[in-house]
Design brief:
With about 120 residues, the protein is mainly α. It has one domain. It contains 6 helices and no strands. Helix 1 packs across helix 5 and helix 4 packs antiparallel against helix 5. About 15% of the residues have low confidence.
């Protein structure tokens, strides 16, 4: 499932994405919103040498993460609540992905400037 934001298709969603862009680290947006779950997993496979089992589990986590994010964006909640919800979703996804990684993979992820 590929999900891309379109400013003409859903103006409230676009507004939420613009807010998110201005509220969180650009690298988080770049790696988590613009990439499909499949693209994110391919990037992580290259960076971390994920096993097929790790990649399958991570793909499920990213797919669920993306679904949750779109629900938050479409909820119509006020700006601060949307930001809090999206940050909670990001922290949860990072924690779940981190639990899949070996100590060496976590170190490589941190060395690449990403969080675990």
């Amino acid at each position: 499932m590929k999900v891309r934001a379109s400013p003409t298709a859903d103006p409230p969603l676009f507004t939420a994405l613009v807010f998110l862009l201005t509220s969180i680290n650009e690298s988080v947006f770049e790696h988590c919103i613009r990439l499909t779950p499949e693209e994110e997993i391919e990037r992580l496979k290259e960076l971390l040498s994920l096993t097929d089992e790790q990649a399958a589990k991570a793909l499920k986590i990213y797919g669920n993460w993306q679904d949750k994010m779109w629900k938050v964006f479409r909820s119509g909640e006020e700006r601060e609540k949307t930001r809090e919800a999206t940050m909670a979703i990001l922290r949860d996804a990072d924690k779940q992905i981190g639990s899949l990684l070996t100590a060496d993979q976590k170190r490589r992820l941190i060395d690449a400037g990403m969080s675990v």
